[in-house]
What we know:
The structure is a homodimer. Chain A is 41% helix and 17% strand. The first copy, chain A, has a seven-stranded mixed β-sheet with strand order 6-5-4-7-10-16-17, with helices on both faces. In chain A, strands 11-8-9-15 form a four-stranded mixed β-sheet, covered by helices on one side. The first copy, chain A, has two domains: 5-135, Up-down Bundle (Four Helix Bundle (Hemerythrin (Met), subunit A)); 140-347, Translation initiation factor eif-2b, domain 2 (Rossmann fold, 3-Layer(aba) Sandwich). The radius of gyration of chain A is 20 Å and the shape is globular. In chain A, helix 2 (49-67) runs parallel beside helix 4 and helix 5 crosses helix 6 (169-178). By secondary structure, chain A is an alpha/beta fold. Chain A has helices at 34-42, 49-67, 73-85, 92-106, 113-143, 169-178, 195-206, 219-224, 250-259, 291-294, 335-348, and strands at 5-8, 13-17, 28-31, 151-154, 184-188, 211-214, 230-233, 237-239, 244-247, 264-267, 273-274, 295-296, 299-300, 308-309, 313-316, 323-326, 329-331. Chain A has eleven helices and 17 strands. Chains A and B meet through helix 7, strand 6, helix 8, helix 9 and strand 13 of A and helix 7, strand 6, helix 8, helix 9 and strand 13 of B.
Amino acid sequence: xxNHIYFTTKDHSLHLLDQRLLPTREEFFVCRTSEEIITALQxxxxxxxxxxxxxxxxxxxIALHEVMQQPxxxxxxxxxxxxxxxxxxxxxxLRWAVEHLRGLWAGRGDIPPAELLPLWEYEAAAMQAxxxxxxxxxxxxxxxxxxxxxxxxTHCNAGALATAGYGxxxxxxxxxWEAGKKIKVIANETRPFLQGARLTxxxxxxxxxxxxxxxxxxxxxxMQRGMVQCVVVGADRIxxxxxxxxxxxxxxxxxxxxxxxxxxxxxxxLSTIDLTIMSGAGIPxxxxxxxxxxxxxxxxxxPDNVPVFNFAFDVTPARLIAGIITEEGVLRPxxxxxxxxxxxxxxxx
Amino acid sequence: xxNHIYFTTKDHSLHLLDQRLLPTREEFFVCRTSEEIITALQxxxxxxxxxxxxxxxxxxxIALHEVMQQPxxxxxxxxxxxxxxxxxxxxxxLRWAVEHLRGLWAGRGDIPPAELLPLWEYEAAAMQAxxxxxxxxxxxxxxxxxxxxxxxxTHCNAGALATAGYGxxxxxxxxxWEAGKKIKVIANETRPFLQGARLTxxxxxxxxxxxxxxxxxxxxxxMQRGMVQCVVVGADRIxxxxxxxxxxxxxxxxxxxxxxxxxxxxxxxLSTIDLTIMSGAGIPxxxxxxxxxxxxxxxxxxPDNVPVFNFAFDVTPARLIAGIITEEGVLRPxxxxxxxxxxxxxxxx
Lengths: 349, 349
């Protein structure tokens, strides 16, 4: 995978591979304003919790660049950061990235904007690099959960396209493959946005990792027939007790895996864990436009005037999760303790 | 719902509402040859086990009309009936309808084709009328399974369009509605062919029954949130022990319903029960063309050269089924006994 998110310091623009057009077209969407960043996030030019975080970090820099010539720049910037942080509700990485840069700013007292700009640029580049490194470390830990010969099911896209690169769930799959394990992948197509069919299949095929696409409806049959040995997915927000929000349908896949005695893993960096939320009940679930369900490409698939549901995420209870694969190792139940311990290890570094 | 299957005796043609074009276009597909009937079945101009049976019955008549002038007509007709009976593998109603007409013919010794024709036409019309009557009776029995105020989830289309009229699962829903129960329906969109989004929503909206469409992926979330009180689906073939083949994804819905303590019902006429098959393991599962998964309308959703799975059905084990709603009443576990008893009651009539 080439770099799908890159920032140009020359004109302060962020280039995003437009994920709405994959797999049939590879085009970049260029953001020159912080409002264009918000649009890109909301219409899902880019999606995936860690990629949303990195995009938002560059969005803060574009916002700073927009206001830095004005006397009221600090007030205006706070407003723009607030708007960015609320572009989408579920992925905690979005808020995390914005607040991380805001905290850095606060720590420098009355730093002039011309000095804040290079500081933030350095930090955003570091966040992007750190995200890739975290994915690779996660991959190393997670690869041990996958056996030679396994067929691994994944839901949605928790790959290079959902992160700064390499991927969380797909990072685990890549690491297992790179370690010489002969594995196959089943990508659930993941309606309504079809991230599995369009993005996961695209990424893995590019890397030469054997991948097939199945309708979400085929999941139970494939498990019943013994065609799946392991499930690995990403997450958009994890509560302190391990309950994990991820793409709609994940909770169903986890229940079906549990019923068929197939281990179900979450792969996510610690930045996806929200220690301020005790359980999944506290995670806000985004509802998205009906059009994503009622139309596919140019084809209308529901009758006029029939309402549709379009919840973007669901929450998988911790009891269905065999392990949470992080850059601090594979966390095991009880998660309240193993998550707290992972944050302690990270803080000591 | 208007009649979506009608035969014209004048020119021996069968008119089928083309279900591939719904909900945005209402056009009839006209079959003048038995090969056109086979095509219509295979490309799913018409689908749904009872509708497939009725279509095949009219197909037998068209086949007879094609060969009746030839000296070898009986040999040729047997060949055509064999081809018709194997147009699709899973729905037992197809074979049942063809063998029912063949049995009637065998019972008349060396009846000349000109006499067989009106006999079969009378019988096919009776089968079509009986199917509607069976659906209405099923509806009466099944309506008692639905409480006032319930939201009923259904998967695929087991409606008027899947039968000669009124529907099996949707017949139960219609009967509950007609009895004055204030119910709502959630139609799972049912990838890959989208029968739920396209057909179930269309039918129920036409009848003024409140219906919403959800992606198949939303099923677990909707149940988790208490938004579903009852599931009713159709069946394509039921084994003697109650294991039921139905549209891909049904088994997953049944497992999720079981996990959330939501009663899961099958609605199907006795002609869908195959007493020659002891359990679901014996039911053949059709695999259909990849194009149904890889493309939606004109939009390609998977990358070139990535294989896809397209199993058309799965089997729900009897243990997950709260009741099988038939024209002989609501059968309850243990099904081997209740199914056998239902056939005995029917035979005594």
